[in-house]
Amino acid sequence: MTAEMTDLQLLHELEPVVGTLIDRHMNMRKDWNPHDYIPWKEGKNYYALGGQDWDPEQSKLSEVAQTAMVQNLLTEDNLPSYHREIAMNMGMDGPWGFWVNRWTAEENRHGIALRDYLVVTRNCDPVELEELRVEQVTRGFSPGQNGQGDLFADKLFESVIYVSFQELATRVSHRNTGKACNDPVADQLLQRISGDENLHMIFYRDISAAGLDIAPNQAMEALHRVLRNFRMPGYTVPDFRRKAVVIAVGGVYDPRIHLDDVVMPILKKWRIFEREDFTGEGARLRDDLGKLIEELEDTCEKFEVAKQRRLERERKVAEKKAMKNLLVSSSTS
């Protein structure tokens, strides 16, 4: 097919594929219960019920692990907006509608589990967490927000292609956060969440692959638009830039991980640079995508240099602080 297809036509053409992929997903899924991965015995009442309110000394997570876990949770909290976005693009009829609701139900347990873990273990300020949740959900989310223009424009291709990358990025972020927590309970929990995200990614990735076969040039235009404007949904979280730096320097999610573990695996799976069915503008945009990969590679190299400089500064500050403490200790002994 060479003529550009409407979203309604694409929805109809892809519906049999959606049905097949839903069957596969339901066979592959691994049901789990959020409450099974919460160390409830560590919990105790807060002030309103005669207990003790949170104190920073109670947190056992490192700055990197705490920042990453809270960022991941606040990203999951915007599920109402994500549900609205995919429902608008995919519709609520037939297999598409079933998937929208099934995906939402599975995603919902991520926020439940992460919040329970953080509040029960007192690994973050629960009052601040609730204030951030309210602000984050009030801000909502749309891929066209914050100066990006009308990125999705209610188009199906942009939607499924974006979430292909986003779900994989979320899976990687959760998995690396689990490792950074240095807590086997948190690691098990985040493995479960990562497993869900991986299956969701596979679903969207394979829908996108089918779309590339049906309308390659049209899909290529959407792919180019998505990667040129890509942002993780958590960019609406207050103080996102500072948190992103902490997470990146801590090795949870940085430009190298984004390129090597998210962007390139999906592009290779779709055989973007080997396909011969792109023509005209589609072929030109595929070539420009090659330039984008080079730009991302350059960003990785620059980030690594900046990261090493930052770590060196932090090391010197830590040494000075340790020396000062030693001098104070010596003078008082």
What is this structure's SSE topology?
Layout: H1 7-28, H2 63-77, H3 79-90, H4 94-121, H5 126-139, H6 156-180, H7 184-214, H8 216-228, H9 240-249, H10 255-269, H11 281-332
CATH architecture: Orthogonal Bundle
Find the CATH topology. Ribonucleotide Reductase, subunit A
Strand portion, in percent? under 5%
Record field, number of beta strands: 0
Task: Tell me the name of the CATH homologous superfamily.
Answer: Ribonucleotide Reductase, subunit A
Mean pLDDT: 92
**Tally of contiguous helical segments:** 11
Main β-sheet: number of strands, strand sense, barrel status?
none
Spans of at least 5 consecutive residues with low confidence: 145-154
Rg for CA atoms: 22 Å
* Straight-line N-to-C gap: 83 Å
**Main CATH class:** Mainly Alpha
Q: Share of helix among residues?
A: over 70%
Shape label: globular
**Total number of distinct structural domains:** 1
Provide the structure class. mainly alpha
Succession of helices and strands: HHHHHHHHHHH
Please tell me about this protein's structure.
With 333 residues, the chain is mostly helical. The protein has a single domain, classed as Ribonucleotide Reductase, subunit A (Orthogonal Bundle), CATH 1.10.620.20. The protein has eleven helices and no strands. The chain has helices at 7-28, 63-77, 79-90, 94-121, 126-139, 156-180, 184-214, 216-228, 240-249, 255-269, 281-332. Helix 2 (63-77) runs antiparallel to helix 4 and helix 3 (79-90) packs antiparallel against helix 4.
